[in-house]
Design goal:
The chain is 43% helix and 12% strand. It has helices spanning 2-5, 52-69, 115-131, 150-163, 173-181, 188-194, 235-246, 264-277, 283-310, 322-339, 341-351; strands at residues 14-19, 27-33, 38-43, 89-90, 96-101, 106-107, 201-203, 212-215, 221-224, 231-233. It has a 5-stranded antiparallel β-sheet. Strands 6-8-9 form a 3-stranded antiparallel β-sheet, with helices on one face. Adenosine-5'-diphosphate binds next to loops. Adenosine-5'-diphosphate binds at residues 20-26, 28, 40, 77, 100, 102-103, 108, 210-211, 225-226, 228.
Length: 353
């Protein structure tokens, strides 16, 4: 790590570098120096991200755009330059590294401690959308091609299932059948997009609660993080992925499925915060928000199941069967949303500005 860190313009000598956080994708470390300054060091996941220079160009442009919009340093991410003044360091092989200033005085939650926390995270993601409204979305590199193209996720799932190279399909027979039954639902947003009914915007695309920092004291929104997947996308993706993760009554990898459901109260709370802060939406975009919740959850379940069948190559796992457990919670959430569908639509209709 010293070898990596010596390439960045840090204040002081490094006294600590240790694994940090709960992300599934990058290798994240907390770095402390003898000046008391803290940093986040990340090894970028090159299995997920094939074009790291393009990805870092996105992040450089987006953070510099946001920096012009915010009132204080802590309200957006800052990349720490390398000695040559670049935004990342490449070791010449497979290692790509970047350093951010640590967002001090913040908290990052794995689940909302109160509905108010969830409301504030919604304001954070809605505000992020508003701040990016005048960002030229067409200049962004597509860091993962077809990232939220759910029909394409289904195609990949079916290809991996047909191969079943580890013989794991027999352990997931029920889940496979249930996900296959919902393939058409998974095309709803893509069909609306293709029919020209929804505008493409610069979206975050990975709006988990643990990708937003709240002020530790006031619990107000501070900063949206994890910008690897900022790409042209739909408002429904950002709304939906937050519901998938944050409106769940249990953790993403809970094994007791009786604990897993989608809280309508949290759904309403998030929708209120998001709609109050995001840019003006079109009539069809409003309805697409509810579809976003269903689609992002369905898609994520399909992705976890695909990775399980494929041998766990994509998402970091911490126990055998972890991706299967995750796919089961997503399926349970989708089933629960189907039962609550009319109420979800009613809530969104009631919040139209
Ligand atoms: P991943 O793509 O693997 O999810 P993230 O960029 O989300 O990686 O980082 C993982 C975790 O590290 C976050 O959930 C958060 O807890 C912490 N983190 C990331 N960046 C910062 C930062 N600038 N300041 C403080 N904590 C951070
Ligand atoms: C990953 O990077 P992280 O942990 O915030 C994934 C998301 C999934 C999520 C499921 C780049 O998010 O798409 O929804 O796991 N990110 C990428 O928890 O694939
Ligand atoms: Mg993250």
């Amino acid at each position: 790590m010293q070898e990596v860190l010596k390439n960045f313009k840090l204040e002081g000598q490094v006294t600590l570098c240790e694994p940090y956080g709960c992300g599934h994708i990058n290798r994240t470390y907390l770095v402390v120096t003898d000046s008391g300054k803290r940093y986040i060091l990340q090894g970028i996941n090159t299995v997920a991200f094939k074009d790291v220079p393009g990805l870092m160009e996105n992040i450089g442009a987006v953070t510099r755009h946001l920096q012009k919009k915010v009132k204080s340093e802590r309200e957006c991410l800052h990349l720490v330059p390398t000695l040559e003044g670049a935004d990342y360091w490449h070791d010449g092989k497979d290692g790509y590294w970047r350093v951010y200033d640590f967002v001090e005085g913040s908290i990052c939650l794995q689940s909302p401690e109160t509905p108010e926390d969830f409301y504030q995270s919604a304001v954070a993601f809605g505000t992020f959308q508003r701040q990016l409204e005048d960002f030229p979305a067409e200049t962004l590199h597509e860091t993962i091609v077809n990232f939220h193209n759910t029909p394409d996720r289904y195609a990949k799932f079916k290809a991996v299932l047909a191969q079943d190279k580890l013989g794991r399909a027999k352990d997931a027979a029920y889940e496979i059948e249930e996900f296959l039954k919902r393939e058409e639902d998974g095309s709803t947003l893509m069909n609306m997009l293709r029919a020209g009914k929804l505008p493409l915007r610069a979206t975050h695309n990975d709006t988990k609660l643990n990708n937003v920092m709240l002020d530790a004291e006031t619990r107000n929104p501070l900063c949206v993080i994890d910008l690897d997947t900022v790409m042209p996308g739909l408002m429904a993706y950002d709304f939906g992925d937050s519901i998938r993760f944050g409106a769940a009554t249990a953790a993403e990898d809970e094994t007791d499925l009786s604990k897993v459901s989608m809280s309508l109260e949290l759904f309403e709370t998030f929708a209120r915060g998001f709609i109050s802060a995001c840019p003006e939406l079109t009539e069809e975009e409003y309805i697409s928000l509810a579809w976003g919740a269903r689609t992002m959850t369905l898609e994520c379940g399909v992705r976890f199941l695909t990775d399980y069948l494929d041998g766990d190559n994509y998402f970091a796992i911490h126990r055998p069967g972890h991706n299967l457990d995750r796919c089961r919670t997503q399926l349970k959430m989708v089933q629960d949303m189907e039962g609550k569908w009319e109420q979800m639509l009613e809530i969104i209709r009631g919040l139209r500005r």
